[in-house]
Every structure is written in C-alpha cells, then in structure tokens.
C-alpha cells in the first residue's frame, strides 16, 4: 500500500500507481506526490531525473509508524526534514500516519512555515519491492568525463540490471557516464521485533527480521549509495554487565578494540564483545551492531550511528501519539496502561529481591519525545562531521534510575486511580539495574534528555484516559 498525504488536509489519497509483489521493479514509476506547500514545485516527477537541479532530500524511516518511530517522524517533520516512512504495520496502525500529519501541520501552521513532505509505503523492509522504492528516489546525472569504475558510487553492473528501465551499455558511453544519486540522505532503522519474552520462545523470528533483514537491507542501501544509517539499538547489548550497579558506559560493549579515558582520567583499552547477553532479542541487537561496526570499518564512507535506548516511556503531550502496539505489550508503562483501562486486572511486578532501594528493578526511563529528538541530534552530528568514527554507539537515557515501584506510584498519583499490583518472580532475561552514562551523547551529539518521570506519567495518562472507564473513587 502506498499513501501520500495532503499537506493541508491530512487526507490520504490513492497514488497513481500501486506496488504489488507481482510487479517487476521496472513497473514502478515515480511516487505521485500530493501538493506539498514547501516542495511541490521541486519534487521531481521522474525517477530518471537526469539533470543538474538538486532535488529535495528525504530521510527514510523504516518502522516509522511504531511507538518510537512515530514520535521521531513527527520531530523530523518539525525540524523541516522530508520523510519517507516504510512500515508493514505488523505492530502499528495506519491511523498513526494521519495523527503525525495533523500534529506536524499544526506545528507548521503555528510557526507560519511550510510543511515538509510526508510519504508512506506499507511494505516489509525485507520485500524485493524495496529496490523499486529506492529506485524511485534516485536521480541520475550525466558526468561529462569518464569516471573510474572504482570511484563510482554503485556497481556499474547494477545500473544495467537496474530498477528504472535504463538500458545502457558501458561501451555506448565512452565520454559520458551516468551517476546515480539518492534523494534519501539518511535512514533511521526502527523496524524490528522487540519482545524479550517472545524472542526466547521464537528466536528464529527475531533473527530473521532483526538480523537477516538488516543485512539484506544494508546491501541494498549500499547499492544505492545510501550510507548514512541510524540504528535503533538497546541497552540490552550490555547484557549482565548492566548489573554492575553503575551507569553504563558505551565502552562496556564495543565491537573492535577501543581506547578511552575512564572516569579517573586513565587511558584504557576496551575489548570487543560483551558478557551475559540475556535473550535472543538482546543478541540480535548486539549482532546488528557488530555487523554495522564491521561494515563501517571496511568502508569509512559509511556513517553509522547506533543509538542504545534505555527505557523509552511517555508519549506526545497531545495524547494523539503513544504506545499502541498490535502485539500484547510487555513493557512496563503500556502494561500499566492496560490495567488503567481495565483490560488487565493487575500489574505484575517481576522480582522484588533485586539489590535496589525497594527491591524492584531500576531502569533509566526516558521520555519518547526526548528520545526522538536524539535521532535528529544524531543526523545533525553526522552531517556536521561531529561523529567520531564511521561506526559510533551512543546511550540515549537520562542518566537517572527509577524503580518499578516509583513508576507505579507516579502513574497512580497522576491518574488518581488505584493500580493493583501482584508481586511475582523475576522474568527470564531481566537485569536488576540498567542506567545510562550519558556523557558521550551530551558531548558529541549535543543532546540531553529534558523530561522527567512525572512528565512521562502526565503524558501517558493523557493518552490513556480517553480509553478508561468512568473514574471510581481512588481506592488507596
Ligand atoms: N520500545 C522499547 O522499549 C525499545 C527499547 C530499546 C530498543 N528498541 C528498539 O527500537 C525500535 C523501535 O521500537 P518501538 O518500541 O517503536 O517498536 P514498535 O513495534 O512500536 O515499532 C516497530 C515498527 O516496525 C514495524 N516493523 C517491524 N518489522 C517490520 C518489517 N519487517 N518491515 C517493515 N516494518 C516493520 C512495525 O509494524 C512497527 O510499526 C526497535 O528496533 C526496538 O528493538 C525499543
């Protein structure tokens, strides 16, 4: 499915062509963009946009209608990026697209500025159709001088079997060469399965989507010369190292030898690898990071940023965007929300015997809007050459921990409702303490989380209360 949104009304309209799995890549023509105040005149009408005029660029957000993706797409639009969203809706809904559009349009109207383009393809990012999508965002320019094969931005052979019907033999063009350039200047890759518990039961499902999918995808991106990649990683890559009881530094999980200065000012060597990964999900994130680090080491023209999220919570203050998965939620706050709405009778607290102030697990809860802005910071840092290496990992957290009980109390107080709990044993794959050291992101990305746990609770309640039954008297 393909959809373009009208910048002014937010209404979707069918595109003038459709992508179906039976069609060959050559059958695809340029996306039929709706009027966009900012870019309508500039968006090229033909994928074979041969010419010297620069076309508008896009950030491609894969998995962009999910919880973190949707908030990030909104922040991108607010920051004037054109966005192409790819999502197969396996864990999200198309209605999210319209909500993003509404919020972005309101923002732009308020600031009296034009609205960037928002485009959407409902597609599994592992689908062969991704080639066609990328082709439709490519432009071609004619180089007057012959270009050495080694300096071409993509394999010449790829051009001949390419996506857009170009049929040109190398010997036909001794003096002139076609060069492909993508309008997609960066990719943010959110698409993955994310349940620790499910990954233990169904590891292959996780490795196929999270790892194999990404490897294939990277090959395709490389072919199209798209080498600016932001990866959704996770604090789970620290494995049982998280239990050290201190904020986690990025050097606790590296993929090649790294020299760093520790907190006492001593130079140290970080050794590749990590101890005690606790689930196939965590391993899938570690594997993806390792693969990305290897690719960047082999070709320094990649710019790859792995953002290690701690515990994303909260939602957009409007209550229009939030965490609304198709799959059964397993994260703390969505589970609390299901108790608030009455869909679940009680909140299970997994483990009350951790070595923490109240025995419940400590996590670094980061507001999802702060997290979303971390992605914009990563793109900006990469564009400004502030990212120190072709592959670089950053913790995105607040640097401050809260226990599960504190979160429970915070939501109870914000909602004014009793949230019944049941204490149960530890969950497989959990750790007791997981808090970020945030110095690297602050220094290199010029980014810092701003919002508090209270902000998170207020926004979650705002998102949830419409779905709750009429309030009872608070029982506590
Ligand atoms: N939410 C968290 O607590 C958390 C913590 C650390 C890391 N992460 C990572 O952040 C990313 C986003 O997490 P989220 O919470 O927004 O999850 P989510 O499930 O809400 O969003 C993922 C989106 O990707 C889509 N998707 C999944 N597989 C796809 C595929 N093959 N092709 C196209 N679309 C596909 C889903 O439909 C969904 O919209 C994931 O990679 C996750 O592992 C999440």
Defining traits:
alpha/beta, globular, 12 helices, binds nicotinamide-adenine-dinucleotide, 20 strands, 476 residues, single chain, Rossmann fold
Topology of helices and strands:
Layout: E1 2-5, E2 12-13, E3 58-62, H1 67-78, E4 82-87, H2 95-110, E5 118-122, H3 129-136, E6 138-143, H4 156-160, E7 177-182, E8 184-189, H5 196-201, H6 203-223, E9 228-234, E10 258-261, E11 267-270, H7 280-298, E12 303-309, E13 311-313, H8 332-340, E14 347-350, E15 362-363, E16 365-367, H9 368-383, E17 391-396, E18 402-403, H10 404-415, E19 421-424, E20 433-434, H11 439-444, H12 453-464
Parallel strand pairs: 3-4, 3-8, 4-5, 8-9, 9-12, 12-17, 13-16, 14-19, 15-20
Antiparallel strand pairs: 1-2, 1-5, 6-7, 10-11, 15-18
The chain binds nicotinamide-adenine-dinucleotide.
The site of nicotinamide-adenine-dinucleotide has 28 residues, from helix 1, strand 4, helix 6 and strand 9.
Describe the structure.
This is UDP-glucose 4-epimerase. One of its GO terms (cellular component) is cytosol. There is one protein chain. This protein is α/β, with parallel strands linked by helices and 476 residues long. The chain has a single domain (2-314, 367-398), classed as Rossmann fold. The chain has twelve helices and 20 strands. It has helices at 67-78, 95-110, 129-136, 156-160, 196-201, 203-223, 280-298, 332-340, 368-383, 404-415, 439-444, 453-464, and strands spanning 2-5, 12-13, 58-62, 82-87, 118-122, 138-143, 177-182, 184-189, 228-234, 258-261, 267-270, 303-309, 311-313, 347-350, 362-363, 365-367, 391-396, 402-403, 421-424, 433-434. It has a nine-stranded mixed sheet with strand order 2-1-5-4-3-8-9-12-17, sandwiched between helices. A three-stranded mixed sheet has the order 18-15-20. Helix 6 runs parallel beside helix 7 and helix 10 (404-415) crosses helix 12 (453-464). The protein starts with a strand and ends in a 12-residue tail after the last helix. The chain binds nicotinamide-adenine-dinucleotide. Residues 63, 65-69, 86-92, 124-126, 190-192, 194, 209, 213, 232, 234, 309, 312, 325, 331 line the site of nicotinamide-adenine-dinucleotide.
